[in-house]
Amino acid sequence: MKKAFIIAFLFCYNFAFSQTYTLRDSVIASSDDTHERADATSYVTGTGILIGYNVGVGVRWGGTRFTNVNIPNGAIIDSASVAHYFLQDARPINTTIFAEAVDNAAAYNGSNGEISSRPRTTASVLWSATTVINTFSWSPNIASVIQEVINRPGWQSGNALNIIYQINPQQDPNPGGRSYDYNGVANSPKLYVEYRIVGSQQTRRRRLVQ
What we know:
Layout: H1 2-16, E1 33-37, E2 48-50, E3 59-69, E4 76-86, E5 92-99, E6 125-130, E7 135-138, H2 143-150, E8 159-167, E9 176-178, H3 180-183, E10 190-196, E11 203-206
């Protein structure tokens, strides 16, 4: 009976003193966002990241890399989403979201095919919506995509996470989100993640927005 009481007390103590954590971050460098055209050329220093199809430009891929993602290996991802800032009139998005299937994603350097050649997660989420002008538009829940990377044996808290967009054909005009090169951190892509630590009742949340 005494042993059961102690166990119950420790459980309640841990639960009662659980805390919520918030961390703000975003794409913080020119080399951390880009898009790639059908001819494999990529544009690291452009002011926009096209994450919607464009017949004339022929963009097929987009990429946004987030550094210092402080999520422990094996954490349980409850929800996650990415956001882009749009200046154009409301336009449709039709893109499939993956993450790069690596332990620590490398920065972009403008080489040909550098998004499409990177390994992608098995998990993916379709983002089909209409953009909101002069503000950030958030994707659907991509928890399954983030979870696949966090579960990799080589993932460590603080590593870089790369979100990859496979752009599906749709009617023009395409949505062009702002990149870091447009206005620095203020309008660069954002990431939001909520997760729990495995093996405890303490819920930890990380909102990676800046």
